[in-house]
Amino acid sequence: MALAKPKRASGFYLKDNNWYCTTGLPSDLTVEVDGLFFHLHKFPLMSRCGKIANILDKSQDTHEESFKIKLPEFPGGPDTFLVVVKFCYGVRVELSSKNIVAVYCAADYLKMTEEFGEDNLLAKSDTFLHKNILRNWKDCILSLQCSDPVIRRAEKLKVVSKCLNAIAMMACTDPSLFGWPMMMYGSLQSPGGSILWNGINTGARIRSAESDWWFEDISYLSVPLFEKLVRTMKERGMRPENLAGAIMYYSRKYLPGLGRWQGGQGGKSRTFTSFSMTSAAVDQKVLLESIEKLLPEKKGKTFCRFLLGLLRVSMILGVSNKCQESLERRIGMQLDLATLDTLLIPTYSDSDTLYNTDCVERIVEHFLSSGKNVTLFSPSSFDLETSPSSGPLRRVSRLIDNYIAEIASDVNLKPEKLRNLAEALPDSSRSLHDGLYRAVDIYFKV
């Protein structure tokens, strides 16, 4: 049986749970990180790491030739510590969008400041972040996605907020104004919008410069990071319709049940050959409760359909009462834009009735009590499909009459439920009562 060869990495090799230096000099310092042991030497680490220098200075009284140090909760774990060790030994280390946040946090954890060596790792990390990451859309997204394991320290160091601000600024800006090279739709693009191949302008143009080009990219972020990014974009003046579009895209990606009620309005499928990312692990209930808080106070037909889809999914997932009530309130504020198919919300409890009439009754109450004039999304960039031929109250009355006629065929529907819905709207909302007569006729026949 052949023995497994030790794993080597630029002057170091791994054997079992131990990393060794290939210098041949006996180790006088062992550092434990997450169950892995690094057999190292005092001087290279003391000359760069303030934290380790302080620990060793306090241990000088023991007169031991070899010291053991344990670094609990080390940012980035053993892989990041190996990068730090290689840096301390003068081995060339490669910073990238995938490791920069962890390395930055590790350098801060170990106090690798200029006090312990010129051009130390903390300064190098900060320079790399500002020159290489914050100026590049793709690298900014990748860095954020890889920051989850060290997110608390990264937030404390303002690394996360810097990345969020950079992404928000680029998303709020016309992409044709970006400095190149940048990655869009898997291809390099010059400031004029031409496709680049190996840095050469081919003269070809990208197919479109839509305002939603960034939706897919940010959908790879975790829920907390996505929430922070949307808030940052809002602070930077992102248009409400673009924010709503990004929220809808993200929701449809991680809440598959939404697709059943969206009438083919799902997000566009795009492939980014430049991005080697995997979708975020998402708790659907947490996602929905977070998404609800981000929704803009705007109205539009597509947006109303989306809200009703969210409401259905919220009932399945069992979200908080506060979240469900807020969704019902939002829908009520634009009930005149709803359609019958989206309003037919099934009963997900043990009730004998087919449809949740109590929910619709509450939505109607919100519509009538809504004193706030909710403005429409910009018609040039968001689907409205409003009908100016009649007022909101008349449109809602026709919708509810049609709704009552649809649910009237349910043999388990109690008379008082039908009556409550019929009387929910004032008499002035109906110029004719033909719709109600038809609904009552269906109910009696059933």
TrEMBL record:
Keywords: Ubl conjugation pathway
Coiled-coil boundaries: none
InterPro entries the UniProt entry points to: BTB/POZ_dom (IPR000210), NPH3/RPT2-like (IPR043454), NPH3_dom (IPR027356), SKP1/BTB/POZ_sf (IPR011333)
Annotated ranges, domain BTB: 27-97
Domain (NPH3): residue spans on this chain: 212-446
Source organism superkingdom: Eukaryota
PROSITE patterns noted in UniProt: BTB, NPH3
Family matches, as Pfam families: BTB (PF00651), NPH3 (PF03000)
Protein name: NPH3 domain-containing protein
Organism: Aquilegia coerulea (Rocky mountain columbine)
